[in-house]
Write a structure and sequence with these properties.
GO molecular function, one term: oxidoreductase activity
Oligomer: single chain
Helix content: 25-40%
Number of domains: 2
Number of helices: 11
Protein name: Enoyl reductase (ER) domain-containing protein
InterPro entries: ADH-like_C, ADH-like_N, ER, GroES-like_sf, NAD(P)-bd_dom_sf, Zn-ADH-like_protein
CATH superfamily of the largest domain: Medium-chain alcohol dehydrogenases, catalytic domain
Domain Enoyl reductase (ER): 10-321
Largest sheet: 7 strands, mixed
Structural class: alpha/beta
Radius of gyration: 19 Å
CATH topology of the largest domain: Quinone Oxidoreductase, Chain A, domain 1
Shape: globular
Length: 331
């Protein structure tokens, strides 16, 4: 099978298109014909050898994908051959075939394309568990979304609105701010040209926000923490801008909290909440609440370019890699 192959830890530029053996599904796993995958920042971290898991060489990156079930491992009962699905992957999305856990593979929603499925699984499910279970976002509260023009940021904006929150989207350029507003945010602030805390406090009449969804980290964290009101919750979702230090004294003074959110936790320890999150996402999607933004669609041959668009923050929403676009048309 064709794949974008990682043979050594390093920059994503070291990835090369080549041939790999087709993987074999084990118990409780399925083999997928990948139609589309999408780039995630974590793919670059994995290729660099700095991710939480380190696959054996050679491997293909790609933490999610959408396609067709072509083989069932022993014990799989929730899927059948031919099913149109989206899946969270350990790796392998940048290949023509990949193995997925059956419990982390879901049927595409009605009217959902493979491309939208590839853009949905990780971003929307991760954002939902973060806001629903870690941030405990409630209707009527105010949500601040950093990196709001990214894939997970756009998902958080939409999910926040479905939960009944007032949403402030924060991004680094006017172009991205316009995209965030068009995608449903009530307000948008530019943290590159102005002070984030001052802009947020002005919009909230000095009260601050209830929840901050933060996939950025770095220097932005300090201002984001100051944007929280009394009892505010800061969700550490990622650190594309660097890993921040959390000052405990500033949490105590205003009864704030800072929590991490990892999809792996829910997979390993609270799969019941993961099931509930996906059910709520499916219901909202059926009502037309979600519209995944895909700024670029590239073939597998340009997979490195797809990852570069993400790591260099040139994308709005998701970057999808079309592994087998003809199957999208035929299905």
């Amino acid at each position: 099978m064709r794949a974008l192959i990682c043979r050594n830890w390093g920059d994503i530029g070291t990835l090369e298109l080549g041939e790999m053996p087709v993987p074999e599904p084990g118990p409780d796993q399925v083999l997928l014909d990948i139609v589309a995958t999408s780039a995630n920042y974590a793919d670059a971290i994995m290729v660099a050898g700095k991710y939480q898991t380190k696959p054996e060489f050679p491997f293909a990156p790609g933490l999610e994908g959408a396609g067709l079930v072509v083989k069932l491992g022993k014990g799989v009962e929730n899927l059948k051959i031919g099913d149109r699905v989206m899946a969270k992957l350990a790796h392998g999305g940048f290949a023509e075939q990949a193995v997925a856990e059956a419990s982390e593979t879901w049927s595409l929603f009605d009217r959902m394309s493979f491309a939208d499925g590839a853009a949905f699984a990780v971003a929307y499910l991760s954002a939902h568990v973060a806001l629903r279970w870690q941030g405990r976002l409630e209707a009527g509260e105010t949500l601040l979304v950093l990196g709001a023009a990214g894939g997970s940021g756009m998902a958080a904006v939409e999910i926040g609105k479905t939960m009944g929150a007032r949403v402030i989207g924060a991004a680094s350029s006017e172009k991205k701010l316009q995209a965030v507003l068009q995608h449903g945010a009530d307000h948008a602030v530019n943290y590159s040209s102005g002070n984030l805390k001052d802009q947020v406090l002005e919009l909230t009449r000095g009260e601050g926000v209830d929840v901050c969804f933060d996939p950025v980290g770095g220097d932005l964290f300090d201002s984001a923490l100051s944007s929280l009101g009394w009892g505010g919750r800061h969700i550490h979702y990622g650190f594309v801008g660097g890993v921040p230090r959390v000052p405990a004294n500033r949490l105590l003074v205003k009864h704030r909290s800072a929590v991490g959110s990892s999809l792996r936790y829910f997979q390993n320890f609270r799969p019941d909440l993961l099931v509930q999150s996906m059910a709520e996402l499916a219901a909202a999607y059926d009502k037309g609440a979600f519209n995944p933004v895909i700024s670029h669609r590239l073939p597998l041959e340009r997979g490195v370019e797809a990852l570069r668009l993400l790591t260099e923050r040139k994308a709005v929403g998701k970057v999808v890699v079309e592994v087998a676009p003809k199957k999208e048309i035929n299905q």
